[in-house]
Design a protein that fits this description.
eight-stranded antiparallel sheet, 6 helices, 2 domains, Naphthalene 1,2-dioxygenase Alpha Subunit, Chain A, domain 1, Rieske Iron-sulfur Protein, four-stranded antiparallel sheet, single chain, 320 residues, alpha+beta
């Protein structure tokens, strides 16, 4: 990822996850094929040992470790059942107020673990973020009938509120789903959806995290969590989330087929029925800008209503 290769491991002493550049600067050995000793990872080629801070802490056949024996250690965070890595070309430390919010359902024991899938995409990550504002694609791509659609943005967050029907994810012509999708930063989006499954109200959390591989490819880490049904077994709950994940991936691949074959349009020609694609791109551009150069119009609070209709709260209340 990020045009290079990384190694991720859990320290045997501190039990923390550490991420380093994967290639040993000595002779190019791949640390991913090495072994963990203490809180260090040992290169399989010549057994040079690299600490969690990226500093070489042992060379078994050397009397002195070179001062330049340092590789990049990437800031990491373990939260919400996920591992995050901080990528910043300027070398800045993580911005505290941009740390993803704690998702309490991940810790309650009442929800399933993330059911995950990795989906390679031949495009730019920005094309995925367009979906947050691109109301018009839900009909032809997802066979969805949008009843209401609005967006808000402020700082590092961009949110989509939508109510509509969905041919794959809902039951019956009159069934509605609600969706609140929130980006916290450029590559971590969680969605809370409500709807019906087997005639029963259902709430799910979705994860979409996109990681750049290079300038022409990225990987989507797609995840689903569902609230456990206390009346069925653990195996039954696992089967339920697996079934719903398959449905979501089927829906998601409708987008993938488009992304893998479309061209990149930097300044799209829009009409009055489109959502605020230019707005979400303006918001997203802050993450491609040096921190000192970020402008107010990239981060200030805004709201855009594309389709007026029943709110997410109203639909959830009626469903209950």
């Amino acid at each position: 990822m990020f045009g290079t290769k990384l190694v991720a491991y859990r320290g045997k002493v501190d039990n923390e996850v550490h991420i380093l550049d994967a290639y040993c600067p000595h002779m190019g050995g791949d640390l991913c094929g090495g072994e963990v000793k203490g809180n260090s990872v040992v290169c399989p080629f010549h057994k040079w040992s690299w600490g969690s801070d990226g500093v070489c802490d042992d060379i078994p056949y050397a009397k002195k470790i070179p001062e330049k024996a340092v590789i990049k250690a990437w800031p990491t965070l373990e939260k919400n059942g996920l591992i995050f890595v901080w990528q910043d070309p300027e070398g800045n430390v993580p911005i505290p107020e941009q740390e993803p919010e704690r998702q309490e359902d991940c810790y309650s024991g009442e929800w399933t673990n993330w059911q995950m899938a990795a989906i390679p995409i031949k495009s730019l990550g920005r094309e995925l973020v367009d979906n947050m504002a691109d109301m018009a694609h839900f009909g032809p791509i997802h066979y969805s009938k949008v009843k209401s659609f609005r967006n808000t943005m402020e700082g590092h967050k961009f949110v989509q509120y939508m109510v509509g029907g969905h041919q794959i994810l809902t039951e019956g012509d009159g069934a509605l789903i609600t969706s609140v999708a929130t980006y916290e930063g450029p590559a971590y989006m969680t969605t809370t959806m409500t709807g019906l499954m087997d005639g029963h109200p259902m709430t799910t959390h979705l994860l979409v995290s996109h990681i750049p591989v290079d300038m022409e490819n990225f990987i989507i880490n797609f995840g689903v969590m569902m609230k456990k049904d206390p009346n069925i077994s653990e195996a039954g709950n696992k089967a339920m989330v697996e079934e719903y994940t398959e449905k979501n991936i089927e829906s998601f691949h409708q987008d993938v087929a488009i992304w893998n074959n479309k061209c990149i349009i930097d300044n799209p020609l829009m009409c009055d029925g489109d959502g605020p694609v230019h707005l979400v791109r303006k918001w997203y551009s802050q993450f491609m800008t040096d921190v000192a150069d970020i402008q107010d119009d990239q981060v200030r609070a805004r709201q855009h209503v594309t389709v007026e209709g029943p709110s997410v709260e109203e639909v959830i209340a009626a469903m209950a």
